[in-house]
Write a structure and sequence with these properties.
Length: 338
């Protein structure tokens, strides 16, 4: 195995200078650093991460907590998979590796906090945790640097979509098309996972600004975020009213189930009812007709979360909430009223 002493001998620099170049520290000139790094690559140098962890108390490991209680899609989730890919790119460019954290290790059950200590992770990405999970709050209380990329968690920085303004923009789009009787099928309305509540607020704000009274008879809450829940919510809505010309869906996966429920009842998109979603994932693009939706910038969410966590690991202690705007994707599922 090639060591820093071998590189020092080959380049003529001292071992401490080689160490500084490889770790990105110290006051070396750009030219000296490039010579050392180029030689290290040519010699096939691989860092000894165990030794580095012992000498720096850093493992260069970032833990990821990812649960999927309400979507039941695992790593196929269209939004969170892209957040993870983007987060991973920035984190790896920063010299870190990812490690998924669970509540078990083999047959042994453990808390997230215990797992973090066992693996000696430097920081944690919290993505889509079980709503109200007290283990998450206990993890935050340990002081391990954390960032959330899905929902606000007290005490740590968060990167999330502008749900209220995004929902309002989608509703305003329907208003411009002439729709006034607009139903809403939301996700689960939980205080601990507020995306659905925020989108409902945007729905209501658009109604109010357009002089339309809120009608709770036109609003139905889904029990989960998946397509089957959207189908079931649409069936409940249709059982009490068909007096609407458009539906605002809490996300694209719900919209998929809503469309199927409407078709099973002889109602077709967009001829009979316009339909708009929220996410911008590939599933909506391949619906027939393709789903008009508010697109979340999941790649930017993941990248920003990684940048914030890296700054936190560098000593930046400020807690911040970054809201990423959603953008309208006009496709074929909405039509103007004559």
């Amino acid at each position: 195995m090639v060591t820093i002493y071998d590189i020092a001998k080959a380049t003529g620099f001292s071992p401490p200078s080689v160490s500084k170049a490889l770790n990105g520290t110290g006051g070396l000139s750009t030219e000296s650093r490039e010579i050392i790094l180029k030689t290290a690559v040519e010699m096939g140098y691989t860092p000894n991460m165990t030794a580095r962890a012992l000498s720096t108390s850093r493992s260069n490991l970032i833990g990821v907590i990812y649960e999927d209680y309400y979507m039941l899609m695992g790593f196929k989730h269209p939004l969170f998979s892209e957040i993870l890919n983007s987060f991973r790119t920035v984190i790896e460019n920063g010299g870190y590796d990812l490690l998924f954290l669970s509540r078990t290790l083999g047959e042994r059950k453990m808390t997230y906090s215990d797992h973090c200590r066992f693996r000696n992770v430097d920081g944690v990405l919290i993505l889509n945790p079980v709503p109200g999970d007290h283990e998450i709050f206990r993890l935050v209380d340990t002081g391990i640097p954390c960032v959330s990329a899905n929902e606000p968690i007290a005490g740590i920085s968060t990167v999330i979509t502008e749900n209220i303004s995004g929902a309002k923009e989608g509703m305003d789009y329907l208003m411009r098309l002439g729709h006034r009787k607009i139903a809403c099928i939301s996700g689960p309305l939980l205080k601990t996972a507020p995306a659905a509540m925020e989108r409902l607020i945007g729905y209501r704000e658009s109604l109010a600004e357009n002089g339309i009274e809120y009608d709770e008879n036109l609003v139905e809450e889904s029990r989960f975020w998946h397509a089957q829940a959207g189908y079931e919510a649409a069936v409940r809505l249709l059982s009490r009213t068909t007096g609407f010309t458009a539906i605002f869906a809490g996300n694209d996966t719900l919209a998929n189930g809503i469309k199927l429920a409407l078709e099973d009842n002889g109602i077709y998109i967009p001829h009979d009812v316009s339909l708009i979603g929220f996410d911008g994932d590939d599933n909506g693009a391949f619906m027939t007709p393709a789903l008009t939706t508010m697109r979340q910038d999941s790649a930017l969410i993941g990248a920003k979360a990684a940048e914030i966590l890296i700054r936190r690991l560098s000593g930046h202690l400020e807690v911040e909430t970054v809201r990423i705007p959603a953008t309208l994707l006009e496709r074929g599922s909405c039509r103007p009223l004559l």
